[in-house]
Amino acid sequence: MSDSTQQPSREIKVAVIGANGRMGSEAVKAVEAAGGLALVGTYGSGDQLGDLGGADVAVELTVPGASPANVAHCIQRGVHVVVGTTGWDDAALETLREQLVEAPPAGSGAGVGVLIAPNFAIGALLMMSFAAKAAPFFESVEVIELHHPAKVDAPSGTAARTAELIGRARLEAGVPAVPDATTHDPDGARGATVHGIPVHSVRLRGLTAHQEVLLGNAGEVLTLRHDSFDRGSFMPGVIAAVRAVGDHPGLTVGLEHYLGIA
Predict the structure, then answer these.
(1) Within this chain, do residues 168 and 239 fall inside the same structural domain, yes or no?
(2) How far apart are the C-alpha atoms of 228 and 74, rounded to whole Å?
(3) pLDDT category, 37, cuts 50, 70, 90?
(4) Which of 12, 22, 147, 186 is the most exposed place for a label (fewest CB within 10 A)?
(5) What is the DSSP string of 209-254?
(6) Is residue 253 part of a domain?
């Protein structure tokens, strides 16, 4: 059988892990509706992944406790992975890099590609990019993320990624730490500090996924806000990631790198 380099127009075979969840069920519908993709497997909690139905790409949308093992399973079988599950810390990412070095080649003969995507919404990616560009010009920066109460992790992956990008931009520009005279906060009202940036998490019935970045100088405030009112807003990014991950061997953190937004 000819390989994919000889048949560039062949369908990409896709499996969805976490197919019964809120994001996973949307991803299943999006893959079924997308041209050039073929859904070959759907897997819920407790299902054996096996050979993933012969998939070229797996979309992993589960929970932080299950995601690393699922991704490792895919890598060991030479299957590219698009990961929307959050909670990947530096140690887990380093382990993932080591697994990729030892991985067998993908079906195309190239190295396995893994994308860790804190957010798939194009507007959210632009918001994060704009925030990183603006951050060195403001004395104060804080992030507020707002989600539904069924979300299990805090802060959100998007907020953590935003704080990382902002913190890096400010460090590279030589900007001092954000000012804060708080010395007494026994209940944690000031929120978490992520890469030197205060981050606040709201969990409220009626919300889906929302984030504000507040940037302040004396006499002015710039507010950047993105709202996802429906999980369908993430699906164009999921499909773009599925189509591109095979062209990016190794680990990539952030869909913005595939889209030229970074």
Answers:
(1) no
(2) 29
(3) very high
(4) 186
(5) EEEEEEEEETTEEEEEEEEE-SGGGGHHHHHHHHHHGGGS-EEEE-
(6) yes
Q: Which amino acid is at 15?
A: A
What CA–CA distances, in Å, run from 223 to 90, 125, 127?
Answer: 29, 16, 10
Which residues carry out catalysis?
Answer: 147, 151
Question: Tell me: the pLDDT tens digits for 56-104?
Answer: 999 999 999 999 999 999 999 999 999 999 889 889 999 999 999 988 8
| Alpha-helical segments (H) within 102-178 | 122-134, 157-173
Q: How far apart are the C-alpha atoms of 118 and 140, rounded to whole Å?
A: 24
Q: Which domain range does residue 162 map to?
A: 122-180+189-229
Alpha-carbon span 107 to 112, nearest angstrom = 9
- Give the rounded distance of the alpha carbon of 86 from its chain centre: 6
The structure's pTM equals: 0.84
More confident residue, 5 or 72: 72
